[in-house]
Model the fold of this input.
Amino acid sequence: MKKNSLIFAFGFALMVLSSCDDGDIREEGYSDNNYGRVVKLTGKINGVKGWSSNYSVALAGFGDSDYSIVQKNIPVSDNGDVELTLSVTSNDIKTIELCVTNILRERVHTFKKMDVPEGKDSIFFDAGEVDAGMYRCLQDEIFTTTCVQCHGGSNTPAAGLYLTADKSYAALVGQPSARVEGGTLVIPGDSKNSVLHKVINSGYETGLRFNHENMVASAKKLELIDEWIDYGADNR
Done:
C-alpha cells in the first residue's frame, strides 16, 4: 500500500512539472501593455564623436521628468548612417527622443522626438539627417534662443558680435573682445580665461555696460558652454 502511494505521488509530480513546459508562465495579475515593445531608429546622424565623455548622444525614453527612463547611445559611424533598436518596457515612457544627456542621464538638448503611439509593438523612428554635434547643440540651446536678439538679426549687433548660426563660430573662437581689453572671446581648452565664460558667469569684473550674468540662468547650460570650450571649442 505504501509502495502504491509513493508511485501515485511521483506520477502526480511529473504531471505538474510537464504542464509548466506547455506555455509562457506569467505571474497571475501581471500586466504590462508595453511588454516586448521596441523602437527602431534610422537616420544619418553626424557629430556624435565631437562630444566629451560627460555627455551622450542617445535614443532615449522619457516620462514626466528630464531624466531618461531608458536610453541607448548612438554609435559613431564614419558616414553617419545609424540603425538602432531600443527596448521600451515601461508604461511611464511618453516620448522617444534623439537627444543629448549628461552623466546623470538628464536631458540637455533634444534634436528630434516623437510621442509613443498606442498599441504598436514596433515603433519606427526615421530621424532623417541630423547634425548632433556639440556646437550645434550650443547654438540651438543657447545662442539662438537667448543671444541673437542683441547679437544678430538685421540690426547692427551689440559689440559687433554676431551669434547667429551662420556667423557665431567664426566670431567667437580665437577672436579678441571688442569690450574687454586684452581678452579673447573663446580660448580653446581654457574656459575660465575666455571672455565668454567671464561675461555670463558671476564673480568677474568685465567692465561691460550691460550685465550678462543672468542671461544664461541654467547651470546645465553654463556647464555646456564651459565643457565645449575645455574640450577644444570644435565646430562639430
Q: What stands out?
A: The helical segments are 2-19, 134-147, 168-172, 195-200, 219-230.
